[in-house]
Amino acid sequence: MLKEVQIPEIGIVKITKKRGVKRMILSVKQYSVVTMTIPYSVSFRIAENFIKEKKNWIIRSKKKISEKEKQKTEFSPDTVFSTKNHKMVFIKAEKNEIIITPDFIKVLYTTKEMFQIENFQDFIRKGVVETLRAEAKECLPERTDFLAKKYGFDYEKISVRNAKTRWGSCSGKNNISLNIHLMRLPEYLSDYVILHELCHTVEKNHGENFWALLDKISGNAKKLDKELNNYSPSIF
Predict the structure, then answer these.
(1) 14: which strand partners?
(2) What gap in Å lies between CA 211 and CA 207, rounded to an integer?
(3) Of 197, 81, 97, nearest to 143 (Cα)?
(4) What confidence score (pLDDT) does residue 52 get?
């Protein structure tokens, strides 16, 4: 059950009632989207009052996310941009086109004015996403298999996808999904995310046992988790 409420100084908040949820969960996501999940036993009025009590925290969180979104790359012929295995190069041509080779993301453009158009910026980003997808399919399953064998984990299937917010997930059947944007992270943080999901094959929640296990194999789970917050799957 979903309800949208308008909160002064915050804007629209989406409140969702879900079965199995034991507590109220308030989140501020990318693009300043505020959501709340509540148990069926909790009324929308109680949820709305709770949101108002957390108003200052929400405002601070939205500001922090907004500052992070300003880090988004504005591509131009002078931009220096690379993925793990590809370097972006800009080539003046007779038509606008993205060509992905084994080593390069070639951005063909007709005029420099094209880079001032939002759709062209999105066009370049789509090229980056396809590059990351290809790199992820080649790298992440192999890396996951290596880490699983090293630390004694078993999982079923692995998939890679272009997610907006989550770096990874593990289903109840131990199917692991990893974000293609892990390819933009330093390798030790990418490994941390993979280990995080592998730990969920044993511990299905984020309780003390989960963090103890992750800390044991990653070295300093809380520190790495905090460092991961400096990155965003959807901002590059």
Answers:
(1) 4, 35
(2) 7
(3) 197
(4) 93
Check pLDDT > 90 for residue 138: yes
- Strand pairing partners for 18? 39
3-state secondary structure of 236: coil
Q: Is 67 helix (H, G, I), strand (E, B) or coil?
A: helix
**Would you say 204 and 160 are in contact if contact means Cβ atoms under 8 Å apart?**
no
Q: Which of 3-17, 54-68, 125-139 has the highest mean pLDDT?
A: 125-139
Q: How many CB atoms lie within 10 A of CB 3?
A: 14
2-60 residue pLDDT tens: 899 898 888 999 999 988 888 999 988 766 789 999 998 999 999 999 999 999 999 98
Distance CA 73, CA 158 (A): 30
| pTM attached to this predicted model | 0.74
Domains and CATH numbers, the chain: 2-69 (no CATH), 87-132 (no CATH), 136-228 (3.30.2010.10)
d(CA 163, CA 166): 6
Distance CA 194, CA 196 (A): 5
CA nearest 175: which of 206, 150, 201?
A: 201
